[in-house]
Amino acid sequence: MVRIAAGQETCRAATGYEIGSNEEAQMPRVKTTINGQEIEVERDRWALDVIREMGIEVPTLCHHPALAPYGACRLCVVEVTKRGSTWLATSCDLPIREGLSIRTDTEAVHRARRTALELLLAEAPEAEEIRRLARQMGLEHPRFAPRVEEGKCILCGLCVRVCRDLIGASAICFADRATDRQVTSPFDVNAEACVGCMACAAVCPTGAIEVVDDGYVRRIDPFSTELELLPCEVCGKPAVPAKLLPYLRAKVPDHVPVRALCPACRRAEAAAGLSVPSRTGGVSTAPTP
Ligand code: SF4
Ligand code: FES
Questions:
Q1: Pocket probe mutation, ligand 1, options 74, 128, 148, 158, max atoms within 8 Å of Cβ
Q2: Is 204 a pocket residue for ligand 1 (Cβ < 6 Å)?
Q3: Which single residue of 18, 47, 152, 192 could bond 127 by disulfide (Cβ 3.0 to 4.6 Å)?
Q4: Is residue 256 part of a domain?
Q5: pLDDT value at position 21?
Q6: 173-206, pLDDT tens digit by residue?
Q7: CB 72 within 8 Å of CB 19
Q8: Domains in the chain: how many in total?
Q9: Of 154, 173, 199, which residue constitutes the final position of a domain?
Q10: Exposed, middle or buried: residue 57 (CB in 10 Å: 0-12, 13-18, 19+)?
């Protein structure tokens, strides 16, 4: 009988795969084969990380190394064989186990990736990154008509996860179901919890999130969110969201000053050896927002 060791239920629930024997559960390192090459790695590492460390390219859209895997885009699919059974699996949330044979280059893998990309194209016909991947994969005539006339969001959840899991703000979320599913601010109104850090826009793989600074207001589209910008301490131009400063102060040690500097003055400060005096006095030696 297969026994699931502590911590394994999560992997099994997440992946649905058979996860190994009693004996295997005790192994800190396991042998596995990737594209015919046998390697030994720590058990439970994500297959995608291991494959990429071997220099093998795998396309991804919903993966970020700083976030837990989510398995939404299905572009990272690989073919897995164990004890005579073969199946397709997303490698970003596939834990490496003893005796797996993983292939990244089979016909079935390429077919599955192309189908995933066709679906993503239908979902976000305006997303340049998806079009680029389609060109790279030689996908000239996608089978599915665009589900929406315009749009860039593929519902990969990266923005929601970075805001919740790294920034700790939870200022955006998924809403609605099925074809109406979308990423938005809670209740589709100005997100009070948003600190204006722009991490959501930075991780979005398709450019679906736009940050527009208009005078002393920062607008984050499509989340109906607006934030007040504080003036730069040095030049007085719009610089930093007012809510971002207390957020950063709570994150860094007390002795590290957090200042409102615009990008140009921040660069000037760095170039001048971190010695630009501020209007409010003092010299910054610290990272600035
Ligand atoms: S807005 Fe961007 S990061 Fe957020 S779910 Fe859509 S595609 Fe992913
Ligand atoms: S990167 Fe694995 S499913 Fe998107």
A1: 158
A2: yes
A3: 152
A4: no
A5: 61
A6: 999 998 889 999 988 888 999 999 999 999 999 9
A7: no
A8: 2
A9: 154
A10: exposed
